[in-house]
Amino acid sequence: MPELKRIGILTGGGDSAGINACIRAIVRRAAKEGLEVWGFRDGWRGPIDDEAVLLSLDSVSGILPQGGTILGTSRTNPFRKVQKGGKTVWEPTEKVDRILHTLAKREVQVLIPIGGDDTLGVAWRLFEQHGVKVVGIPQTIDNDVAGTDYSLGFHSALSVVTEALDRLHTTAQSHHRVFIVEVMGRDAGWIAVLGGIAGGGDVILVPEEAFSVDEVLERIQERYARGRTFSIVVVAEGARPVELGGKPVAQEGKVDSFGHIQLGGVGYWLADRLRERGLECRVVVLGHLQRGGIATSFDRLLATRFGVAAVEFALQGKFGVMVGLRGHDIVAIPLGEALSQSPKPVDPVFLKLARAIGVR
Questions:
Q1: I want to staple 152 with a disulfide (CB 3.0 to 4.6 A). Which of 16, 44, 82, 139 is the partner?
Q2: Within this chain, do residues 329 and 287 fall inside the same structural domain, yes or no?
Q3: Consecutive 10-residue runs of the chain (360 residues): their mean pLDDT?
């Protein structure tokens, strides 16, 4: 590979607090090596439409604590899903050619995509099929990218959920009600479990384990029997009621460019079932509040480590990898390995912890 002179960055998928801190770290580390950094706008749409901005030390000054992403994001997918020989495969569209043309035109030698398994999946296919030199950074509040203990943005989202549960406790207790708090988590219940434990949830429902309404009712009635007049139920959006055949509650007809059916509504579905059984319920859907706001100290530090490592891996010629955190160490994980094990389910140690303190 010729001497590295120019790096590209893009941020794809759902945003989270910590992305800007990561962009800042990449630019600052690259500047020490005299490297030029181009930021592509709105995820994969940026290189497709050749929309980019030159990032400098001045342009990233002051963005360390900011949530969101100064580059914008989208769920653009330059590949299409098709069935071949009974298998699902991703075929390149003409948008892939446009990405390759943009990278060549701008002489971007290494691309650093920041995102979840969809964004990183596109990066992996570009590397494998088209030779694009990529170094991925895992960023998703769901924390479901395999190969890394934590993804960028998860800790900040967890803090939002914990604070929301703290606030709801006083209202639930005052009004003697059941509060159902729906949090994000399509395939994995990391936010629900860790947020539920930290915020004192009484029932935690996750995609990893199907639940029944009767089980939830039984847990609430156990609390009533002990003199507790309220309950907090934390439910991940992808939680699967057995009454629906173990499938999540989905928004009919809504599918994104990566083939994901839009989920949402399990909180209201559960509330209706509990009301039928005589309980007074209220529903709080935290939704995009979990994504926004100021990044926590943990995410700022993680973002800085991830950004610096991505540039250093590029300088070392390590491509087709993802930056990851294992224990206290930052490591390079083959993207193919990480993606083959994603989405990463909740570590059973946390489910065991919840049960140990009497939470379903």
A1: 139
A2: no
A3: 91 94 98 97 97 97 94 94 84 95 97 96 96 97 96 97 96 94 95 97 95 94 93 96 92 67 86 94 94 94 98 97 97 95 94 88
Structure tokens at 277: 């059984």
Domain that holds residue 265: 157-292
What is the rounded distance in angstroms from the CA atom of residue 143 to the CA atom of residue 185? 9
231-241: burial string, b at 16+ Cβ within 10 Å, e else:
bbbbbbbbbbb
In the prediction, which pLDDT does 357 show?
A: 86
Residue in 116, 99, 104, 154 with CA at minimum distance from that of residue 13 = 116
Inside any domain, residue 352: no
CATH of the domain at 263: 3.40.50.460
Closest CA to 210 of 178, 259, 249: 249
- Residue 108 near residue 314 (C-beta atoms within 8 A): no
How is residue 250 written in tokens?
Answer: 């989905």
3-state secondary structure of 357: coil
What is the gyration radius of the CA atoms in the chain, in angstroms? 22
Task: List the structure tokens of 24.
Answer: 């800042």
67 and 176, same structural domain?
Answer: no
Location of structure tokens 């949530």: 67
The span from the CA of 38 to the CA of 53, in Å, is: 6
d(CA 116, CA 121): 8
Same-domain check for residues 138 and 169: no
3-state secondary structure string, 210-232?
Answer: CECHHHHHHHHHHHHHCCCCCEE
**Do both 245 and 203 map to the same domain?**
yes
In a domain, 349, yes or no: no
Specify whether 141 is located in the same domain as 183: no
Q: Identify whether residues 119 and 76 lie together within a single domain.
A: yes
User: Residue 19 burial by CB count (10 A; 0-12/13-18/19+): exposed, middle or buried?
Assistant: buried
pLDDT tens-digit readout, 74-89: 999 999 988 887 888 8
Residues forming beta bridges with residue 6, ordered by sequence position: 36
Residues whose CB falls within 8 Å of the CB of residue 245, separated by 6 or more in sequence, listed in order: none
Active site residues: 142
